Amino acid sequence: MFGITLGMGVFTALVAFLVIGTEDGRGRDPNRWTLITVDPGAAFLPTLANADIGAGANRLSFTVQDERGQIRGDLTVRVGIYDVAVDPDRPVATAFAQFISYEAESPLPSAHAHAAGGSLSDNARYVGAGVYVVPAFFPRPGTWGLEFLIGPEGMRFEEEGFETVLFRLAVRERGEAPGPGDAAIAVRSRTLLEEPDLGRLTSDPRPEPGLYQLSIDEALLNGRPLVLIFATPGFCHSRTCGPSVDVVKGVWRDYAGEVDAIHVEVFENPEDPERLREAEAFVAWDLPSEPWIFVIDGEGTIVASYEGTVTDRELRGDVEVVLGR
Fold first, then answer.
1. What does each of the 325 residues of the chain score in pLDDT, given as a tens digit?
2. Helices 312-322 & 241-255, crossing angle to 10 degrees?
3. Whether 269 contacts 278, CB under 8 Å
4. Cβ(166)–Cβ(32) under 8 Å?
5. In angstroms, rounded to a whole number, what is the distance separating the alpha carbons of residues 18 and 169?
6. Edge-to-edge, what's the strand order for the sheet holding 163-171?
7. H or E stretch at 226
8. Contacts of 211 (CB under 8 A, 6+ apart)
9. CB contact at 8 A, 172 and 53
10. Taking Cα atoms as reference points, which of 145, 321, 147 lies closest to residue 225?
11. What predicted TM-score, i.e. pTM, was given to this entire model?
12. Which of these CATH numbers, 2.60.40.1080, 2.60.40.1230, 1.10.1200.10, 3.30.230.80, describes 15-171?
């Protein structure tokens, strides 16, 4: 039986209501945005993975689970954005979600325990095959709605059989994490200079030494663009940390002469999985979840940020922007 699951942490403050219907999404019910019981027989259930939604541009990520409990990546998903206070029946925007597959390359999280006050990954879910992503713009804070129309891949929306799922969101004035336009936080992060053993710097099973050469505060002073990722590949229950770090590695290798890159391991002591402690730099940035990826220009201003996942194409595009191309 399905329950209400809210992604990589406890997100009840973000998702106020969940409504699941079994119609094809074209009929309009005046009570369609009110709270009802989740349908235990629903064919598909999306799980929103964002912990940080504020007014302005957002990049939503989510998984879709079928009635057998399997995470599916072979579906057509269209997302509509509704200003439920103004017009609950007419979307202000619609977009098709893109599926990002991590099944083949993502390492499974290792068995571990957290120290007191441990990371939100304590409550995280396995993403499994991967995640869907879709852009979402909320021009102001308040109550907004998301309508998911979900059906088998290749099915036309003129046909019946699409599952309708509605989320009702409480959008904040701004997100908790730093975002585009904000100054990057200059803080010391651990490097190979102080700890030459990579196994004590990162839980990445395939670490790239180049991502541990500079501290964040050092990188922000040298006038070069910076790609910064906070992630824990070895302990990430969402299974998005490893793939996102791999994307950063690949992009940095191609731009290493022009752009710096830093991976901050979420935990200070990844070599001791029984007593994990959050890293000082991760605490200083006060991020509500992990992973997070930031692209920072040569003046120390954040120009792009990603919660949970980033694609090679997106990250390369941002790097080209900060390089002025």
1. 222 223 333 222 233 344 444 444 444 565 677 655 567 677 888 888 787 899 998 999 888 988 888 888 899 999 999 998 888 889 999 999 998 876 555 555 566 565 554 444 433 444 456 789 999 999 999 989 999 999 988 777 666 668 888 888 889 998 889 999 999 999 999 999 999 999 999 999 889 999 999 999 999 999 999 999 999 999 987 778 888 899 999 999 999 989 999 999 999 999 998 899 999 999 999 998 889 999 999 999 999 999 988 888 889 999 999 999 8
2. 40
3. no
4. yes
5. 9
6. 15-21, 163-171, 142-152, 75-82, 93-96
7. strand 226-231
8. 202, 245, 248, 249, 252, 261, 262, 263
9. yes
10. 321
11. 0.78
12. 2.60.40.1080
CATH topology of domain 198-322: Glutaredoxin (3.40.30)
Q: Which two tokens stand for residue 309?
A: 């996942």
Cα dist. 253→173, 216, 248, 261 in Å? Answer: 37, 18, 9, 9
| Dihedral over alpha carbons 3, 8, 11, 17 (to 10 degrees) | -40
Q: Kindly give, in sequence order, each residue whose CB lies less than 8 Å from that of residue 11, ignoring residues fewer than 6 positions away.
A: 48, 50, 51
Domain limits, the chain: 15-171, 198-322
Q: What H or E segment, with its residue span, contains residue 217?
A: helix 216-219
